[in-house]
Write a structure and sequence with these properties.
Elements (H helix, E strand, L loop, with lengths): L8 E2 L2 E6 L4 E10 L6 E7 L20 E6 L2 E11 L2 E6 L4 E6 L3 E3 L2 E3 L2 E3 L5
Antiparallel strand pairs: 1-6, 2-3, 3-4, 5-6, 5-9, 6-7, 7-8, 10-11
Pfam family, one: Agenet
Protein name: Agenet domain-containing protein
Length: about 120
């Protein structure tokens, strides 16, 4: 997604065609057109595309660990800032929001860099 409200998030989509030398047309799996008549389609630059990251089993997250949370039909990058009972609290730098999530809505944050998945470190 290219809109400012979606900065810091990733959504599942299928590439439907190539549009020029560095752009592709995609159809989102969970985002609908404004009139809700079907999946949203748009043209995106190559640098906005990445494959789905591998699933990495995780039983807990540590304070200040980078993670992705599934919210509003997409994955949002954030920082674990607390835990209470079975909920993790995350801070999202791109929106300035803090929200809570159960473990099953979280995954390890990974970055797509030079054609492979990496685990960035906070520091």
């Amino acid at each position: 997604m290219t809109e400012e409200d979606f900065k810091g998030s990733f959504y599942a989509a299928k590439i439907t065609s190539k549009d020029g030398s560095s752009q592709f047309k995609v159809k989102y799996e969970t985002i609908l057109k404004e009139d809700e008549s079907g999946p949203l389609e748009e043209v995106v630059n190559t640098n906005q595309l990445r494959p789905v990251p591998p699933q990495v089993p995780k039983n807990f997250f540590s304070l200040h660990e980078l993670a992705d949370a599934y919210d509003h039909d997409g994955w949002w990058a954030g920082i674990i800032c607390g835990k209470f009972q079975s909920k993790y609290f995350m801070y999202f730098p791109t929106t300035g929001e803090e929200k809570s999530f159960p473990l099953e809505k979280l995954r390890i944050h990974q970055e797509w860099f030079n054609g492979e998945w990496t685990y960035p470190r906070r520091g």
